[in-house]
Write a structure and sequence with these properties.
It is a single chain. By secondary structure, this protein is an alpha/beta fold. It starts with a helix and ends with a helix. The longest helix is centred in the middle third of the chain and has 26 residues. The model has no long low-confidence stretch (mean pLDDT about 85). About 35% of the residues lie in helices and about 10% in strands. It contains nine helices and six strands, in the order αααβββαααββααβα. It is globular, with a radius of gyration of 19 Å.
């Protein structure tokens, strides 16, 4: 009963393989732990699988699917747009228009996070990161330190308000960073990922925002994974410019080497 089924040629059979580390459509992969995964992912996967293969950065793939979904729903979107996914970590993609996608790798940018950091002083982190402030580690800390169970969390207004405050601070910081780095003023937001369900009831965001939480999608009869599948299909669209990562794979590799020896 998935309304997107006709667009996805269902029933279908697909295998998704996730890799820890930045991946980009031009087949490059940054293996931070040197586990021997080939840089030229696509040719290696095609050779091994003997079928069509799409190699794409996860947040960019999600953003392409989200745009396709909003088009189907005839929901207008203002560009430039910032896509944010809230899950194990945080994903960010800048869309200057509907065909341009730049994945922003948060672990490699020099963003001061002046709004977010003051809200995280009560959460101990061996090394501060926006992923720990808003991702899985935040919820692990919350469940351990605040005596709240996972079942109680969706119905716990103080904790939801705290998470929402962090998210809005993060949004301000990233919008400021995008403006200073890319000379782009963000006009709207698309938010998704499993943890977006915790902000849908507290939508007090400063920009026009579409929240594609799992709960909201399910109410529409949409299987949440369908958004990623739409993104995979649109990755082969000839109108799309090649996806990009910021910083580049080469720059991230350089910074990793600097961290190892400093």
């Amino acid at each position: 009963n998935n309304p997107l089924s006709p667009l996805l040629d269902e029933p279908h059979s697909a295998i998704s393989v996730s890799l820890t580390g930045p991946v980009i459509e031009n087949n490059s992969y940054l293996d931070a732990c040197k586990r021997g995964i080939p840089q030229q992912l696509k040719s290696a996967c095609v050779s091994a699988a003997g079928c069509n293969v799409v190699v794409e950065n996860d947040v960019i793939c999600w953003a392409k699917g989200a745009l396709s979904y909003l088009k189907i729903k005839s929901q207008p979107l203002q560009f430039p747009c910032l896509g944010i996914t809230l899950g194990t970590g945080v994903g960010v993609v800048l869309m200057k228009d509907e065909y341009s996608f730049v994945g922003i790798e948060l672990s490699f940018i020099d963003c001061p996070f002046t709004h977010l950091k003051p809200l995280t002083s009560d959460q101990a982190m061996p090394r501060w990161s926006s992923h720990s402030a808003l991702g899985e580690k935040f919820f692990g800390w919350l469940l351990q330190e605040k005596s709240v169970t996972e079942e109680q969390l969706p119905f716990s207004p103080p904790h939801l308000a705290h998470y929402n405050a962090r998210f809005q601070a993060f949004t301000k910081d990233i919008c400021d960073y995008v403006k200073s780095t890319f000379s782009v003023t963000v006009s709207s937001l698309i938010v998704g990922g499993g943890n977006s369900r915790f902000i849908e009831a507290l939508n007090d965001l400063p920009l026009p925002t579409h929240i594609l939480s799992p709960n909201a999608l399910k109410k529409e009869g949409i299987v949440p994974d369908s958004i990623q599948l739409l993104g995979c299909k649109s990755s082969s669209d000839e109108h799309h410019a090649p996806s990009q990562l910021y910083p580049s794979i080469d720059e991230m590799a350089k910074r990793l080497n600097e961290r190892r020896y400093n």
